Amino acid sequence: MRPTLSFATALGVAAGLVEVALRASPLRALDLSQVGQWTLLAVASACAVTIPLALSRRPQLVTAGLLGLLVSINYRYELVLNEFVRDPRVWGGMIGTFLLGAGVGWSMSRLLSVKRLLVLAVVATVVAVARSTPTRGTPSDLPSVLVVSLDTTRADAVGDKPVFARLAREGTVFSQAIAAAPITEPSHLAMFTGIAPYRSGIVSNGTNLGEREALIWRSLSDRGYLTGGFVAGFPLHGKYGWAQGMDAWDDDFGRWPGAESLSMVKLYNQFFVKEHALRERPASRVIDRAARWLRAHREETFFAFVHFYDAHGPYEAPPRPGEVAAEPPTSGALLSLPQYWPPRFRAITSIDYLKGAYDAEVAYVDGALGTLLDALGDRLDNTIVVVTADHGESLDEHGYLFDHGDDLYDPSLRVPLVVRYPPAVRAGLVQDCQVSGVDLAPTLLDLLGVEDGHARDGLSRVPELRGEPCRDTPVVASTTAGRFVADPPVDHALRGGDTKLIAKESGAVEYYELTTDAGESRNLAPSEASKEREDLLRLLLRDQGATVGPEMDDATRQALEALGYVEAE
């Protein structure tokens, strides 16, 4: 028994280390201690399989069992992930690959020994560390850039929050910032390329971006910037192309870095985690990774993007220290809450309670923002800091309770926007003209003095940041009128500062005079004014490229459905 136990332990150690070596990448942005944690978890999970098999007292069975299991798990997750278990391609293929892997393992066991396995473990450790070594940047006279996106955060939700208020005192606020889309992926792409969704073709979550040369961090990387992104929600996962041009892209939503990539963790998720994978993470985990990266690279010149997802429904901010969370009201008539909210949240019957819960989420994220700024240390004043949101949230407007994405009214489109950079941005200034999410990329490039030759829809707002008169420009915002189809119908809004026209794919038109009807409650269409705006919108859309539909795979559908971006079938 003892020799078999030694062999099983050595095999588990070697197998865990080899898997880490194969999956290691600088994109994970892990330091040595995090690689060590990942390695320990990988080794422990592999040994959890091999050591019980040692009871057989047959090294051949230990090797066959482990290799068969690993091969079948990877078959499931790499080749037939989007098929149901009842499909013969899944259960039949898993049985076949298990038997194939077990046969190879049985044969290989004669070539293995404890000594050889330990040598393999050492080699794998060296490879894992080498492949995990993060990319380093270089100091320069150019400022660094930190862009923070507060997902699902309304413009009127941040004014009383202390960290945002501090940034407002030390920088310039745009009080009429309008998102290019009320959906996470297309809005972020518009911000970081300066190209509106109606021209980029990306109008829905779950869409593969393809090559996007206009992404601002690609241009900055070409000029020596170290680039890193830390995201908290599935719509910005690297699988859709978001990591292109980045030196680091952290979209690992698990508690332990790297854990979700391990075969045995995937097997655990298959049985014990809803939808078989994590879809988001709280600000505390984002901060843990992002602040560590900022502290490690703050003496270098970097572009960092940090994304917080907490204000997205359902709302459940952690209680403050020493505070006990109040029990939500569940008596009375049920509300028409989003279907994707779990039953325990949909049982809440008080609109006021849920508004308070949303505000608590925003307050929690505001505190996380403060921790992030602290990580910059004395480099803060040499860093261009931008805090904004991809879209807002309807709390009860238009009878639309605690959701976004299906309409183009202001609660879902008006977002916070503040820019802080003492050398070039006036402090304490509020600019009241209308600006768009597509203005972000050209503004940052202009502040940095970078010209990359890409045509963009947005306008540089550097003159406004310096205190010059604010230029009011129209904004076209777009959203999918039908979720998750190959060629989605798209609704558009043309917001002109004091007016808004909404033109729906169905042919319906709405027109609002915002100066006298900020709540968009009196539809004035059809009218001469609305017809003029409709003609202008159609002129803007005339050169629209072909709309790109999202990838039609079940894994994406399930994840987006759970987050409320796709209606359950």
What does this structure look like?
The structure is a single chain. By secondary structure, the chain is α/β, with parallel strands linked by helices. Among the domains are: 2-132, no CATH class; 144-233 and 280-327 and 353-472, 3-Layer(aba) Sandwich (Alkaline Phosphatase, subunit A). The chain contains 18 helices and 13 strands. The protein has helices spanning 2-23, 32-53, 59-78, 88-108, 114-132, 162-170, 184-193, 197-200, 216-222, 263-272, 283-297, 343-346, 351-374, 410-413, 440-448, 462-465, 528-541, 554-562, and strands at 144-150, 172-178, 226-230, 248-250, 302-308, 383-388, 414-415, 417-420, 429-436, 475-480, 490-495, 499-503, 509-513. The strands form 2 sheets. Strands 1, 2, 3, 4, 5, 6, 7, 8 and 9 form a 9-stranded mixed β-sheet that branches. Strand 12 and strand 13 form a beta hairpin. Residues 545-552 have low confidence and may be disordered.
Helical run tally:
18
Radius of gyration equals 26 Å
* CATH third-tier fold name of the domain at 144-233 and 280-327 and 353-472: Alkaline Phosphatase, subunit A
Helix content: 25-40%
- For CATH, the homologous superfamily of the domain at 144-233 and 280-327 and 353-472 is named as Alkaline Phosphatase, subunit A
List segments where confidence is low: pLDDT < 50 over at least 5 consecutive residues: 545-552
Helical/strand content category: alpha/beta
Q: Distance between the terminal alpha carbons, to the nearest Å?
A: 54 Å
In total, how many beta strands? 13
Strand content: 5-15%
Shape: globular
* Main sheet attributes: strand count, strand direction, barrel closure: 9 strands, mixed
State the CATH architecture of the domain at 144-233 and 280-327 and 353-472. Answer: 3-Layer(aba) Sandwich
What's the rounded overall pLDDT mean?
90
Per CATH, the class of the domain at 144-233 and 280-327 and 353-472 reads Alpha Beta
